[in-house]
Amino acid sequence: MKRMATIDTSPHTILAFCSPLYEDVALNELGTLLGARVLRKLSAGVFLLTVSHSPLDIQQRMLATPAVFTRQLLVDVETLPRSGLPAEDARAVLARPGVGSTPDVLVSDLAGRHPHDVVSLKQELTTASTPPTVRLDNGAEVEDEARLPFAVVVGEGHIYVGRVVAGAGLPHAPAWPAGRPDFPFDPELVSRSALKLLEALQLFDVNIGPAARALDLGAAPGGWSQVLAARGIEVTAVDPGLLDPRVASRPNVSVYAGTAQSFLRQTDERFDLIVNDMRLDSRESARILVDAVNVLRPQGVAIITLKLPEHAPTAILRQALEVLRRGFPVLQARCLYFNRNEVTVLARR
Ligand SMILES: C[S@@+](CC[C@H](N)C(=O)[O-])C[C@H]1O[C@@H](n2cnc3c(N)ncnc32)[C@H](O)[C@@H]1O
Question: Is 291 exposed, middle or buried (0-12, 13-18, 19+ CB in 10 A)?
Fold first, then answer.
């Protein structure tokens, strides 16, 4: 098979996807974690970078210190010119050793979407590869470089082929193309915020059984309570604002119409999970969560979104994490795909 010319072909080229709101912070972070330097910006929140570490070394570094502001990372990235003909592009992609025989190839555009041309390329790859099949997503656990799944990312004039570092450092995270969760549209969700919790539960691999009790601080209009209640969890929803009646009327949701502070002063209940999406300064919100530690059962889990300013968010984030650590070991922090000016944190009592 004739191999097409490649550009930037180097085991030291990586492709990083981050929030367009926090590009500078994400690039600084990758500079600190990996010594990465920018080669080119490909799109909002999408960068080609160069590093001096090997792909395996990068994977180990990211697992040791997961990135907060990077949503997905591809290593060992090869840049191929795009011909515009799906069959020809597929041939060029399949010339990369291993791509055609792996079961786990993600195919998307730079935004993690699957427009017509991406679907055509994926079809060509599927037809041309040897079984097992090429898939758009996977949940593979990664142990070594050879098992890192391939990703094919279709840009304007180029196609990028690389290997996915699991969840940019979160070992059980699904390898969503470009870090964009592929949740099906659900018209029943009462708020977009619900998607943040769905994403956090999957990325952080949180499994709370249906017999559990959850406290939702800052619950209105009720997206997070809805997600938890749908899993059979008993939810106490706390907010001075109104909950959507579709959530408030559920038999396993009880509503406290007041602030988190006043609820915590009077409750003697105990919970397996506390979630906190309160629209407050992140340090104040973290303080309230630390005050709630006594109503969390041992081994109980807390998930909190820390609201950050657009400029220089890291100082505020550091302060909020310091406050949280007074109450809990902080396990993970990540600017999720569905987070805007915020970071979601997982802590455990
Ligand atoms: C982003 S919304 C929460 C959205 C919710 N997670 C959902 O999925 O629908 C933030 C909420 O925090 C609430 N809030 C702000 N300060 C609060 C406090 N001190 N106690 C309780 N709720 C508070 C606001 O009333 C608002 O409803």
Answer: middle
47 and 67 in contact (C-beta within 8 Å)? no
Cα 181 to Cα 175: distance, rounded to the nearest angstrom: 9
Q: Is the CB of 245 under 6 A from ligand 1?
A: no
Gap between the Cα atoms of 107 and 85, Å rounded: 16
Domain count of the fold of the chain: 2
Residue whose tokens read 């998307």: 108
**pLDDT tens-digit readout, 272-326:** 999 999 999 999 999 999 999 999 999 999 999 999 998 889 999 999 999 999 9
Note whether 198 and 330 are same-domain residues.
Answer: yes
The CA distance from 349 to 63, in Å, is 22
What atom of ligand 1 comes closest to residue 224's alpha carbon?
A: 8
Q: Which atom of ligand 1 is nearest to the CA of 194?
A: 8
Q: What is the domain range of residue 255?
A: 193-348
235 lines ligand 1 (CB under 6 A): no
Q: Is 307 a catalytic residue?
A: yes
The CA–CA distances, whole Å, from 32 to 17, 45, 65, 81, 189 equal: 16, 18, 11, 31, 39
